[in-house]
Description:
The protein has about 150 residues and is an alpha+beta fold. The chain has a single domain, classed as Alpha-Beta Plaits, CATH 3.30.70.100. About 30% of the residues lie in helices and about 25% in strands. The protein has five helices and four strands. The protein has a four-stranded antiparallel sheet. A hairpin with an 8-residue loop joins β2 and β3 (about 95-105). α2 (about 55-75) runs antiparallel to α5 (about 125-130). This is DUF1330 domain-containing protein.
Amino acid sequence: MTEFGSIRYIEPSQRAGMRFMKRGMEGSIVMLNLLRFRNVADYTANPELKPEVPISGAEAFNRYIEHTLPFLRESGGEVMFLGDGGEFLIGPEDERWDLIMLIRQSSAQSFLAFSSHQDYLVGIGHRTAAIEDSRLLPMAELPIPN
C-alpha cells in the first residue's frame, strides 16, 4: 500500500502483458509513464546495485535512465518527453506523480525485445529501487483530423 492507500504498481502483470500482445498494435507506439519515487531508494531486491550511501528514489531512477538509454535507442526507441509531474488539474486530488515520460518505440515487437534484453535487465534494479508507484499506458497514434 502507498501513502495514498492504493495498490502499488511497479511491473506489468502477466495478464496485462497478454492483453498488451492481444491488442495487436501496428506501427510505432507511445508509452505514457507516470512515476512516483520513494524518498529513499530501496535496493533490497537488488543489493548488488546498492550504492554505498543511501540515495533518493529520483537519484536511483536517474541511474536507471543512464543505464537504459543506449538500449532504448538501439531498439529504435526514443524519449519524446520528460517532465516534472505534480497534482492533477482533473483527477484524484490526493494523487501526484513525480515524473512524466513519453517514450516512443518503433513497434510493440521492438518494445518487447528491448524490455527483455539481457544487458538492459542488469540495471532494472535501479528502477525497482526508485519507484514507489507507477503507471504505464501503451498508446497507438491516431491521425489528427484536418
